[in-house]
């Protein structure tokens, strides 16, 4: 059941928004050549990374129009939040005999505990990003992380790479895309594995493969697209888990489903997708999340990147309503989709 939260003042902009053809966009994605997922993706002259299958470029005019655009979501829509947070101190995270599980810390921050080993995805525990305040605090379980965990980073945006967290985890091993290692070293981290797309590294019993994503990178004083963005395949001797990080819909999902057969669990983003004319090349929406899930051929799905922080025009928990609507249609998805609240714990590999 959706719960009410404090009403946000709806933005009444001057610009109604550009028309967006969802069908045409999907057709463009389906025409993308999967061979370009393996193509060079760094411009030596400009010193920037790019998506070779489809350039993602926005000019200053697009940004101005977005800032002036009208938010079409009603006040009533902003009164809802997702499943209420769970009180979870996370003491089991330091127990090497604890059963395998996945814990939602909030937004795209999750903890995988497998075989007594702990892997942390995209830590973001601060009260705000660079310019947006958090709506729901992170789980208390974030305080229980073991110092020697493995930290997996998808890209350098503030809501996926939290400097304050990194400085407290300097004893951890960090796995990140190209270009992020320099940031981590400035913050006191020394054990860093910096990978390009399709490269992999083995740490403890995990095999971590850096995979493409359709996104971008920017950080204040560090420029735009100076470091790479990625998604990740995590493999153990028995299981496979795909972490989508942050991405628009693209040909990668179908290719990953072909290359990595029998994926047990997919962690896919679904928030901050409105307005579509501006966000469609940055974030997938809920219908595209289910398309990606189908193309990955994964057994189960955990939606991420929703509920904690208002990054798009839609309320942070709006994806919850859309996900519930889809699950109510049937088709066997109810037994395969797990909507974890902040602090929620999913027991794995039964």
Task: Summarize it.
The protein has about 350 residues and is of the alpha/beta class. Helices cover about 20% and strands about 20% of the residues. Helix 5 (about 250-260) runs parallel beside helix 7 (about 285-295).
Proportion in β-strands: 15-25%
Q: Sheet with the most strands?
A: 7 strands, mixed
**Number of helices, counting only DSSP H or I runs of 4 residues or more:** 8
Overall number of domains: 1
Low-confidence stretches: 1-9
Q: Which superfamily, in CATH terms, is the homologous superfamily?
A: Ribonuclease Z/Hydroxyacylglutathione hydrolase-like
CATH architectural group: 4-Layer Sandwich
Strand order of the largest sheet: 10-9-8-7-6-5-19
Explain this structure.
- There is one protein chain.
- With 350 residues, the protein is of the alpha/beta class.
- It has one domain: Metallo-beta-lactamase, Chain A (4-Layer Sandwich), CATH 3.60.15.10.
- Helix content is 18%, strand content 21%.
- The protein contains 8 helices and 19 strands.
- It has a 7-stranded mixed β-sheet with strand order 10-9-8-7-6-5-19. A 6-stranded mixed β-sheet has the order 11-12-15-16-17-18, with helices on one face. It has a two-stranded antiparallel sheet with strand order 1-4.
- Strand 13 (218-219) and strand 14 form a beta hairpin.
- Helix 5 (252-259) runs parallel beside helix 7.
- It is globular, with a radius of gyration of 19 Å.
- The protein starts with a strand and ends with a strand.
- Residues 1-9 have low confidence and may be disordered.
């Amino acid at each position: 059941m959706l719960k009410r939260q404090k009403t946000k003042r709806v933005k009444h902009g001057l610009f109604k928004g550009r028309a967006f053809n969802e069908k045409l966009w999907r057709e463009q994605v389906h025409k993308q050549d999967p061979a370009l997922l393996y193509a060079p993706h760094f411009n030596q002259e400009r010193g920037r990374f790019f998506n070779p299958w489809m350039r993602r470029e926005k000019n200053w005019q697009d940004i101005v129009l977005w800032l002036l655009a009208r938010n079409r979501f009603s006040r009533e829509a902003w009164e809802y939040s997702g499943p209420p947070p769970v009180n979870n101190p996370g003491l089991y995270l330091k127990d090497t005999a604890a059963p395998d599980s996945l814990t939602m810390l909030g937004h795209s921050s999750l903890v995988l505990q497998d075989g007594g080993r702990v892997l942390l995805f995209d830590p973001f525990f601060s009260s705000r990003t660079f310019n947006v305040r958090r709506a729901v605090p992170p789980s208390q379980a974030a305080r229980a992380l073991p110092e020697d965990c493995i930290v997996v980073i998808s890209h350098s945006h503030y809501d996926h790479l939290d400097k304050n967290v990194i400085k407290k985890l300097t004893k951890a091993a960090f796995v990140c895309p190209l270009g992020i290692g320099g940031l981590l070293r400035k913050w006191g981290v020394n054990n860093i594995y910096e990978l390009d797309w399709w490269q992999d590294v083995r740490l403890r019993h995990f095999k971590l493969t850096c995979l493409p994503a359709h996104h971008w990178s920017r950080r204040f004083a560090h420029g735009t697209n100076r470091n790479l963005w990625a998604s990740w395949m995590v493999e153990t001797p028995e299981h496979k888990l795909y972490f989508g990080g942050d991405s628009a819909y693209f040909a990668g999902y179908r290719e990953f489903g072909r290359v990595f057969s029998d994926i047990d669990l997919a962690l896919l983003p679904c928030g901050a997708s409105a307005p579509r004319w501006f966000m469609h090349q940055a974030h997938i929406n809920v219908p595209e999340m289910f398309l990606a899930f189908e193309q990955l051929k994964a057994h189960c799905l955990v939606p991420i990147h929703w509920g904690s922080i208002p990054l798009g025009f839609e309320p942070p928990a709006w994806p919850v309503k859309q996900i519930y609507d889809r699950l109510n249609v049937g088709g066997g998805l109810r037994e395969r989709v797990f909507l974890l609240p902040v602090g929620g714990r999913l027991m794995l590999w039964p």
